[in-house]
Amino acid sequence: MSDWSVWRALEEWRSRKHELDPLFATAGVAPELESMVTRVLVDLRRAPPTAPLSSGNKLHDEEEFKRFFDAFERHYDDSLFKAESLLRHPWVPEAEPIAQAVRAEVSKIRQLLAKQPGKQPDFSQLETLLQHYIKLNHPAATVSEQTLESRRRTLTDIAGFPLLVQHVQGQPFNDAVPPLASAAFQQEFNDRIQSYLQTPWLHCRLVSQWFITVAIDMALARKKKDAVDDAYIRESLSFRWPAPSVWFSDFEQGDQIWYLFLIIIAIAALFLEWWWVAFGLILWLNLSLGAFRRERKQIEARRAQIIARIQTMKKVRDRFAAGHTTLEKLETQLQQLDERGEFFDESILSVLHLHQHLA
Fold first, then answer.
1. Is 137 helix (H, G, I), strand (E, B) or coil?
2. Cβ(69)–Cβ(117) below 8 Å
3. 53: how many CB neighbours lie within 10 A of its CB?
4. Longest C-alpha distance within the chain, in Å?
5. Which of 60, 223, 280, 291 could form a disulfide with 241 if both were Cys (CB 3.0 to 4.6 A apart)?
6. Rounded to whole angstroms, how far apart are CA atoms 331 and 76?
7. What is the pLDDT of residues 72-99, one digit of tens each?
C-alpha cells in the first residue's frame, strides 16, 4: 500500500466532489482559501486610479472628479468584496471571531471610502486580520496544530474507513481489515459508524453513501456465506426428520453410525425371524431415506431463494453506488430485503436519516 493511502484517496474524491470541502476545511486544509487571501492582498496593493488634472472648466472638472471618485471606490470595493466572499467558504469553526473582525474592518473601510472619496484608506489592519484568519494565530482565536492534526486523523480513520474497505476488497491478499463476513469486521464497522454518528462535522451525504455501501457489501458477503452453509439452511427448515444430527448438531457422522446400527439390527432380526422388528426397521430406513432426499430438495430450494435475494441486493447496491437511488428511497428497499433485521440495524437507519428532509 505504499502507493495508496486513505488521505490521498480522500483528496482525490475532494477534487471531484466538493461536498468534502467542509470536512477538509474543518481540519484546516483549504488551499483555495489561501489562494483567495493572497489575491485579496495583491489587489489591495494595486495602484488606484490617478486623479484627473484640473482644466479650469468647473462643470467638466466636477464630472471628471465624480467619475474618478466612482472608479476609485470601485477599485477597492472589488477587493473588499473578495475579502467578504472568502469568509463564506468553509473554514475552521474557531476562526469565526476573526471572520467577524474582518467583516467589521471591511465595513469600516467602506465608510471611510464614502466619507473621504479619493483618499486611500489604511489596509494594514485588514491585511493583518486576513493573515490571522488563514494562519489561525489570532490572539483571540488560536487553534493549535495538534487540534488540526487530530481532526485530520479523525477524517482519515472514520470518513476514510469505507474507502479503505473498498481498496482492500480489490486486493485479495490485503489484510488491513478483516473479511467482510466475519464477526470481527462487523464489530469494527459498528464502532466506526457509531463514531461517525457522534462526530457531527463529518456528516456528509457522500460519506454516508460510502458507509451504507459498505453495509450492503457486508450483508452480501454474509448472504453468500449463508448460501454455501448447509447447516445454516437446515436450521431454517420448519421440520426435520428425527435423527442424531438434529438432536446433537456437534456429533459428526452421527447419522451414519445410527443408520448402520439400525441396518445391523434389521439384518439380525431377519436371521432370527423377528419379522415385525425387521419390517419396522426396514420401513423406518426407507422413510428416513425419503425424508433426507426431501430435505436435500428443500435445502436446494432455500439456497436458490438466498441466491435470488443476493442478486436483488446486488442490483440495489449497484444502483445506489452509481447514484441512481437516493438515501431517502433506499430505506424502504433495505427493509424489504432485510425483513428480519439481520443486516441493517438502527445505526444504519440513523445514517440514512441524517440527510432525509421532510417536505
1. strand
2. yes
3. 7
4. 145
5. 291
6. 52
7. 778 788 888 999 999 999 999 999 999 9
